[in-house]
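Input sequence (269 aa), recorded before submission:
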Amino acid sequence: MPELPEVETTRRGLHDHCVGLPVTAVVLRERRLRWPVPADLPQCLQGQVLRALTRRAKYLCFEFDHGTLLVHLGMSGSLRVLMQPQEPARHDHIDLQFGPITLRYNDPRRFGSFQWFAHGAELTPLAKLGPEPLSPDFSGRRLYELSRGRRVAVKPFIMDGETVVGVGNIYAAESLYLAGIRPDRAAGRVSLARYENLAAAIKQVLTNAIESGGTTLRDFVGGDGKPGYFAQKLHVYGRGSLPCPGCGRPLAEKTIGQRASVYCIACQR
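Predicted structure, token format:
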């Protein structure tokens, strides 16, 4: 699944190609995504100038004067820039056209979404989200205060979007490794000092991933049509039973919160 760095990479790849330009056409080949795409989306966006393209958590926010189009890439979706006309391939479900430039949405599993919210309407998918991990609002103290009395393991705790957005399975595993915290430790039993280390690790891991273009996933393609390159730098994710980069011991693997988790029994406690 494209995570925060992949979505941010996509946003940056698309931004300069479409912001400030009017939508000249919207082509809906398949409306049956996670939620039905509004049938009147072409009429709604035709001729409207895209004022900004921002990101909140894993949502791309296409901002117009009269509303916002929220796009989620789902499990396998991608948005890429086409500078010249191309025949649509299988799973190319939606085109947003800006003159000669086309933003084409491809989604084999159709778990993504295109949701329209008129100006003044509450952006309901964003209503209960926690802070952005790279913002000043996110800190180790926040994690510490929210975790008091919590028995849930620390890994699913930091993956909860109400705690902090955008820390998916890959980045949670990597951040916990850098902070030296076992992913199965109860969230309420992590000290303030260790949460401060974890918050710093989350910021470092996500910043590095964004700078590297996201994590290379089988289905992920960035806005420029190229995959990300962060996977080659992973310390623990997907490396169960391989040597720990720090101590050389075989990395352990277990299921935590229904997600596969890899960690070092020596370097993480």
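Checked by second reader. The chain has two domains: 4-126, 140-263.
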